[in-house]
## 1
Amino acid sequence: MKMIVNGREVQLPESVITVRDLLEHFQLNKELAIVELNQSILDKAERDGAKLSNGDRVEIVQFVGGG
Amino acid sequence: MLTIGPYSFDSRLLLGTGKFPNFDTQKAAVEASETEILTFAVRRMNIFEPNQPNFLEKIDVKKYTLLPNTAGAKTAEEAVRIARLAKASGLCDMIKVEVIGCDKTLLPDPVETLRASEMLLEEGFIVLPYTSDDVLLAKRLEDLGCHAIMPGASPIGTGLGIVNPLNIHYIIEQANIPVIVDAGIGVPSDAARAMELGADGVLLNTAVSGADDPVKMAEAMKYAVLAGRGGFEAGRIPKKLHANASSPLEGMSIL
């Protein structure tokens, strides 16, 4: 499956089905990650179970230091 | 007590979390400042470099109210998107609206700031816009229903202090919501001056994170805010153009 994650095209294994799988694939901190799927922001409650499809555009952001 | 929307705070010092030399120093500075509100930015995770440390992992998040900003936004729509992302963290519902209109001065775009604030208020956010020291804009933001207004003392990161204390005075004088002087603070006396003018709080970042000793500066800022607030509450003496002796004039015949 191919998708755009944080502006970069990535090839993902078949085992990546949900957003939770995607976060685990990239070993990202699930507590900190905020996910937008095809320009729709996912609430914490619905995030992990959200299904991914070929061609999806995903943004994964977090809080960082700032004033 | 500083009250912003439904939240109340003992500390009137808000601290940014950018550009600290390292997390240990930052954590110590946050503790020394005794702040209860920490600002953050929202940025992409680096998907190819996982396990990068994040300051949120270093602190007890429950002890602080998080105030994410919309820094990076140049339009109201971009600011709204960042605010929604921040809220989706499930960590906060306050947002510092920051829509920069000029790369050189980093001054906020008043029109986009106003539009973003209006849109975010409609969505139920607790909205704290970072604005210039424009008096009428501050009034318009209050009229929209903003929960606090945050006029800049001087441009972000300059450390120039309050370049137009008269405007800050006018903004405070007319406001019925908290006024938090944000940006441009360089030294503790700047923070104290803002509080003496009657500001409800001060938000600063670089003055602490960029100091030679950030922990010591954080503590100094804590005292400056307390001293300035105390001076404001105590009520200053009027300024006079001529001297007025503080020692008694009676009993001088012994000389």
Note: The longest strand of chain A covers residues 57-65.
## 2
Amino acid sequence: MLQNSPKIGHSSHVVTLDVRPQLLDALSALRDRVAAARFPLPLAGAPRARANRDELLAQLDDYLVPRLKEPEAPLLAVVGGSTGAGKSTLVNSLVGRRVSEAGVLRPTTRTPVLVCHPEDHHWFSGMRVLPDLTRVWVPHQDPGDELLLPGEDGMRVLRIETADTLPRGIALLDAPDIDSLVADNRVLAAELICAADIWVMVTTAARYADAVPWHLLRTAKEHNATLVTVLDRVPHQVVSEVSRQYGALLAKAGLGDVPRFTVPELPESAWGGGLLPASAVATLRSWLVQQAQDPGARHESMARTAYGVLDSLKSRMPELASAAAAQYAAALRLTAAVDGAYDSEHARVRGRLQAGAVLAGDALKRWRAFPLDCSAGELLDALAESLAALLLCSVTAADERVDDAWRREPAAGAPELTDRDPSLESAEHRIGMAVRRWRRELEEYAEEEVADLDRSIAPDPEVVAALVATALLGGRRARSAGEGLAERIGAHGALRLRDRAGRLLNDHLDRVVHTERERRLAPLDALEVHPEPQAELIAALSVLQKER
Amino acid sequence: MTAVTDQDHTDEMDHADHTGHADDGRDADAKDERSENSPPVEDAEETGDLEDADDHARVSADADPSGRTESKASADPTDPEESTGSWDDGLIARRVNETTAAQQAAAVENRASRAHAAYTAHAAQAAHVPAPLAYDGPLRSRLDALRELVGLSRTRLDSGTLAEAGRVLDEAAARRRLSGQHTVVAIAGATGSGKSQLFNALAGVAISETGVRRPTTAAPIACSWSDGAATLIDRLGIPGRLRRRPLQSAEMEAQLRGLVLVDLPDHDSAAVAHREQVDRVLALVDAVIWVVDPEKYADAIIHERYLRPMAGHAEVMFVVLNQIDRLPGEAADQVLDDLRRLLDEDGIALGEYGEPGATVLSLSALTGDGIPELREVLGQFVADRGAAARRISADVDAAAWRLRPVYATGRRTGLSEEARDEFAARLADSVGATAAGEAAERAWLRNANRACGTPWLRLWRWYNDRREPATGRLSIRAQADEEATARQRVEQAVRTVADRASGGLPAPWAQAVREAAVRGAQGLPEALDELAARAGLPVGRPPRPGWWPAAVLAQASMTILQVVGGLWLLGQIIGFMAPNLGVPVLLMVAGIIGGPLVEWSCRLAARGPARRYGHDAERRLREAAAGCGRARVLDPLAAELLRYREVREQYARVTGAGVGGG
């Protein structure tokens, strides 16, 4: 066992961990804000933001809040690394007993195992840290623990072992592979590592240049966590060379001051799942024991990681906030596209109404045959049908424009927005209802007008209704309808009736367009993308900064 | 395919190992396998002349005059006479080949032709001028189909979507120009898995630097077992200083002749440039040996980044578990089984029990365990000469699979009769065909009633008409037909039919269909306006049924009866005539009752012709509108759908399915 750098690289000043209740309050407020943040729109940065949010939330729940609440709790050292790096063997050797399954088939560790002193057991058996993981207790020397692995139910499990050989005040956690083929394992490993007071990174002679572990090392540096690296499974012949190379790489990455331990590859250990001789891991063990028992060292490594996480919030929270802002901006763009499409269609349909587009086709033919070959009822029917067709056409045109605009927006790919059932039939139905209601009200108006008339021969109200509808919808082409109306109920009455009917038509038109627009926006509104989260996240961060 | 150079000298070498029995069972089996890999082809347009020559040469011996290709015939192990019979033909064919048909496809040379002098001469020649690669028929037609597909789609799809297909085509063309006698095999794997060690073990000399420093190899190194591979290695972009030759040993050289081995840098180290180099070279080589070790065989990066996406390339893939010397006893088998399981989960077909697929081996490059086995498998693989074509074929598969969403949706496409009818009905609505028909019917009926009505009734009606304000009729003549067609209905009809037509199409094609519909719909309302004005009103006077004059006559005579009866009575009252009350009263009553009776029966009788007249008017308008719609919208739509179907068929040819399924 070699220890290349016995001195821990501390920051120059001595950090202390004094926690005021205000800080805890601010932190829990911040945690709630983070938990409330949602990124439902599939923007380019959304998956990353979602992952960041989950990671941050996990780190707050698993590590930072419990650590600040109870600084006296045992240190948690998480052993992480690539598959086949010998993490389980290392943990077993440190404990001196087989607590974690080791073997040649990868990935070996599928259930994380936490080892602590029996008297520390109460710290971990509760849900103080890692509240997402269900605790299982397996009596040791039981080979059947495979049965208790998290099965298809997807429940995540943490196995807790106790060992007298471990000093009080420190617990070891054997994490799954950080580059596991099983994606869930990778996520779990990252989460566990984020929950550590001391990050123990294990790599091997064959792996020390792999890209994935280096990502993790850089993350550790960014978070300023208390970090130890172990170069495992180094063949005797190349110990010095590999170790030198690795040291050079670490120094290049700015991690030269990280404690570095080397464990040689021993035939009895690697593939038999056995234990390394105590001498092989003695320096690492004594370093860990020192961290646990020397109050100064303990405090320092704890505070360093905790403050590292607190400091990292400074960059992580704005990142989340900007992702939230991007979500809101995208939602605004989508809404604007809908509004624009419906507004322009609304304007167009008004223009067409004024131009008398309704009095065309069937309705026009009826109007020409009126009154000799066509009854007032038929004319009204034709007009209503034509009006419904005009409205439906403009609504579908607006929908099409929205689709066009949304096709260019990545945010419109959200399943909630695309899975909208093509409710054209129901739009037709709704518009038909609205037009029928309009017609009924128009007929009522006509009846009222006719009843008010003090003439001996009252004109037929239906004829009056048909004429006023034609005059209203026919534009220039139906001038004679207005004349006929004036003849029948007088110029004054005709004017009044036309005004009222025109207002009625406008009301119905506005309502139809508004309803359809709301229906189109409903799924977007249901996603609840608001501007508030951005401001709230930043505000929570600044409160926290002030309390520190 | 016809006799070719590519295969023959290995065949000869193969043969040199055994004695020269023509009907050696093992040999025949091997041949059978090979011919399966390159089945007979019909479309040998490039090599037609060669085939002709060949056919002429062997027409005496060949029992099959249908011009079947020779590989088929010679691969038939049950017919030794066939193979021995074409002893001379093969020689001739080979001579023809050497001189003219340099691009012939790799197929099985008739192994009966083994004059040693000819062989040595030929081998010497072939070593200097390597014959380019040629693809067998199905692959070539698939490549052609892919090229056509890309050409047809260029206007519809963006270039990014087609980039991968274009790259495959380019690579296929580039590979084709180069030696078909060589097989380029890359050794890839994670850092520290022992790629360079394996490379050196295969070459027999320490060519590639090995060491504990990670990553060790920074640039690809090539090693060629025979001459003529320079252009191939050029293509990989490996500079001359990194090209090596293996240890000179006759036995080894014979085994691996035609092999070009490339040692790649790692793909998983922190040095990103290495990964880029690996990705670049992996796209160009014919086959890959993936080297994994017991520590790293389950790394996510190799499985997720390389093996899973390349699962279709299983036939040109070796997976080698290196460093088994680090594993005790049966652990090696366990790990190998676990590796097989992982590969299976990646979707890679494993070449066990003679099935095509990836070869999985375990070995130790350090101790040399398993190296002879690998060498033997490699030798066989290289001797087959099929790797390049299989690789391209797998590339085409992968490109086709990636293009699937833009060509196939698995749903039924096309414009149903129902949708066409609905479109015609909507257009008829927009020009008001129903209303026009009804109006025409009623007008006709009205006129008939007026014509056949009693004069007194007509008089009364005329009076009434003068009193009533004539609302509608004034406007009819006052304004010409301006925008008589309901624009909104036309727009909606076009949109609906376009939606129906594009249903089930992949997005880009659906968009094209919709655009075609919109283009067609421009000017459609105006055309319908014009058409409604022309076709709406039947020309000339409305037709009258045959009984019409009789009815008019009868009505007139009824009136005359009334008048006569009245005059008669008047004459009696005046005393001008003899009093006879009965007859004139009878006449008058007959006239008075008969007039309305005639009118009523006429009205009944006129109903039928009126309806016919109305229907006629409606039908004319309807048909004119439907015709206009068909010409302007439905036909372009159908053309667009046809283009899609054509592309779909090309796509089916690319996938090798042959027929265009849903």
Note: The CA atoms of residues 233 and 265 of chain A lie 4 Å apart.
## 3
Amino acid sequence: MKKRIVIGSLLVIIVLISVMVVTLGKSDLGTVCSQSFSMEVAVTDYVADPDTFETEIVIEKEGDYVFRAEWAPSEEGLTTGCMITGENGEIYFASTAEACNLSSKSIELKEGKYTLTLAFIASKERMEAFLESADYSEDTWDVPYTGEHEYAKEGNFSIDYKLWFEKEDTALVVGLIVGVLVGLAIVAIILTLTKKGKEVKCKFDERQELVRGRGFKYAFFTILIGNAVVFLLETAQISLYMSAGIAAMIIALLGICVYANYCIWNDGYFALNERVGSLIVIFIVMGLFNLGLGILAFVDGRAVQNGELTFQSMNLFCGIMALEICGVLFLKKIKDREGE
Amino acid sequence: MKNLKLKSARAALDLSQQDLAEKVGVSRQTINAIEKGDYNPTINLCRAICKVLGKTLDDIFGEDDGLC
């Protein structure tokens, strides 16, 4: 395929995606009805005062929402029950927790007014009354009620509540798809521009094809062994300090490193029609960019949450991988010069 | 085993490894690997190299005793 056709098509795709992003950006995706407030609750002989707190929620646009709440009481022994009801008293969501990051399943809400009720529960009887009012059922609640809970007989509780609704992860999904598409288009343009001549397809000679085949084989076994190790560690319930998804991504990066290093060392990495200098510059820029973002994520505390690596930490690993490949390219260059 | 016949045939035409590689359509490292004996080319590549150098397969890739 001719270069101009490919670049033209990719630019059209980027423009279309950008228009889509701008259009979606105008719709009300994201957080709505956010509320933050503090409550002072006094408990006397297992009775909370006030017993409940109600606040009005106005949903301006019909859709699927996720209700989220965060709170932390000053001391243990008081449970909060959350319930969202409609104008006719119909229950849309109900749950209880002592202190948590509460997150509902997807709730379909129509345009209108809703009531969010917080019940301050300081006894088993009050809990059972709340569950009854919330139509408790073992099948529908995330965590079945066991009745095993210790309540404070007396105490003054100060609780900071943060409550909000989110349009169900549509924005995240759209963001991910758009990000992947734009990323692919940019990579395709870079790969097209780094080719000599009009041909876009990479050309390798027979020895290079052989080397690349071996490289793929070693990378395949690296990923296979990595996945087996993760599987064994998870089976043995040994913490990896990361989710299975992050572990899979890191193993994939390891596989890429093995493949790239083997191919570079055996002169099978760059195609005959590739501008090697341009690609190395792109690698260095990409590596430094990712490394910077990764370090920032670690400094900000976004890369590690609850003692586990998050998706944001991937930038650091991608940066290290890109710079490691650059390092091997540099060493190979030195070796070749010595050989001459 | 080093392929000195290829190296001398190339030198006779005053071609560098890069020149020969470009004419044959492979990388310079592939020509280097063939000359050093690190890589055994396919028959198609052998024929392409012989064509560029104006030699027969026997001249470049034949055994020293004359038997292929």
Note: The interface with chain B takes residues 205-208, 267, 272 of chain A (CB under 8 Å).
## 4
Amino acid sequence: MYKIIDKKRLSTNVVQMTIEAPLIARSIKPGQFIIIMVYEKGERIPLTVVTSDKKNGLITIVFQEVGKTTKLLGKKEIGEELYAVMGPNGNPFPVRHYGNIVLVAGGVGVAEIVPIAKALKEADNYIITIVGARTKELLFFTDVLASVSDKLCVTTDDGSYGIKGLVTLPLKELLDTTHIDMILAVGPTIMMKAVSDLTKNYNVKTYVSLNPIMIDGTGMCGGCRVTVGGKTKFVCVDGPEFDGHLVDFDELMMRQKTYLEEERLALKLLEEKDA
Amino acid sequence: MRRRVRVPMREQDPEERIKNFNEVALGYSEDEALLEADRCLQCPKPRCIDGCPVGIEIPAFISLIKERRYREAYRKIKERDSLPAITGRVCPQENQCEKTCVLARTGEPVAIGRLERFVADYCVENTQEIDKESSNDKRIAVVGSGPAGLTVSADLAKLGYSVTLFEALHLPGGVLTYGIPEFRLPKDIIKREFEYVRALGVEFVPNVIVGKTILLDELLEDYDAIFIGSGAGAPVFLNVPGENLLGIYSANEFLSRINLMRAHLFPEYDTPLKIGKKVLVVGGGNVAMDSARVSRRLGAEVTILYRRSREELPARLEEIKRAEEEGINFVFLATPLAFKGSNGWVDSVECQEMELGELDESGRRSPIPKKDSTFTLKVDTVIIAIGNRPNPIIAKTTQGLEIGRHGEIIIDPETGKTSKVGVFAGGDIVSGSATVIEAMGAGRKSAMAIHRYLTTGVW
């Protein structure tokens, strides 16, 4: 079960992996996510499926090696198996005809947004995609996004590729000049917050895809709770997409940092072991 | 002269046990069991059986203990209860079989639960005999591997059905695994009982969320009948200000991190848990006691805050006693009004004093706020253990399944039949959070009803 069929590195620390998971491959929809455990003593972490191949029972995930769990996952080789892969979790993204859409992606959000972008394209939307990265080397999937977008715009913080600056720079320009019906931002929480803060002024419907700490992913633990419009929601069963204008991002960012010390320790021990 | 008091069960000393996660109650030796079994009067019209949700023939198994025929005693229990090592440990016997024991009128009732546990543990080396009817060609899907699902699976497998047991998590057992701590129900015991169910031929499929990975309606195409035992997995929060501060957990999250993910063994296991010096547990049931006692073992000073008084505590008496022995403080007649924090972390709780008013729906006096009386407690960690609602996933993704106002699946209580032909349900998904044995009782009824349905073809 959950055998790794293919693996490739998309940038220095971003890996793409194809895994045997036939039940998930046939049921997952854009916007939903899975939970994996690398090995028996591992954590349960949420990840997004970029493509699924129903016929061959395969799913493809993209992840960034940041902590112990994703580093361990990155070390797994073709032919090896993962301990647990569960899903799909969460709700599908409300795919329909909106009109003019701006997709904003950063970090691994670039991969996460691909299946939604494809579905929105098929629903006859005009899609402008903005991709942001710190620097040119960290960019990946721009070709994939270009193929599902009517227009693609890339920003880098250091100006090594595309526009120099943050994603909000071209987004603001678009909002000032073009009629936009819907915006979807997927990426680091701080980016989604900046996008939501900006679009609030223009009153354009803005979805964000949240990525809090989770355990079970079935609504059982409440660890992923977040305040949306003054009400507590569980990202795993009520989300993961929410109205960005209603999300309490500061609370979310705070909650994401709960185990920062432990995460550092686990990583340090792993690096020592490897060395 | 018959002893008026039961043979005490040896326990780990409180001073010692708060430093480990080993089982607290150590069980009877053979001599102790024989002594206790001798107290049973073998009533011609036994009332203890009526108190048992699965109807174990209690006097019969105790009589077999008296005759030292332990394996037969074990088989006698197993006729009605597929998981005796578990129920012998976690059943609230004082509200069930032992409550109706005739000896309870004049002294202490027979320690039925302890005897059940003795028999189950004694027979552990006896590789459990598999006694099942020849296979038929009917297929059953069971959703959720907690006490209800395990019971249905075992009962139907014994009757020759081909059973597939689906579990959303990576391990079997449901609440037995993620909810009940090791010191009350060792993981080995769950494993052993689960292996028995597997040995009956039940196919176990983990990591599958019925209602997401596979829809219930899809299962209906492949299986002759379905049993839903997906449990009360949705935690209830207080809905007071500050509840999303760091350091505030639902009991489900707190206990899952420990019981399911082994966070107390971090960094050997990768899932961490942050716990401070002062822990406040809100609630008064078994889950609150479990959360408090786990916290104690992680080195915290623990206070349980309960909105009613000591008499109304819904937890098992034995668990309350053990919590007290372990140095857990209780604050009664108070409830949180708001959580306050600094740098994002909770540091105090503003509480409202309560008093007891009229009897409510549950037959207990309802707590009402006392005028102008609030107080503040300093805390580092808070665990909310005020109950769980039925898991909503199947209800949300299934057509034609009648659901009640708390999200519970509506059934015919005699059979477990839902509003959907071929689909049965039982346990916490129907009742909201209740006991292991009640879930097993519901599972048993449904197993019989499924058997009738598939034998007669009549819904």
Note: Chain A has two domains: 2-89, 100-255.
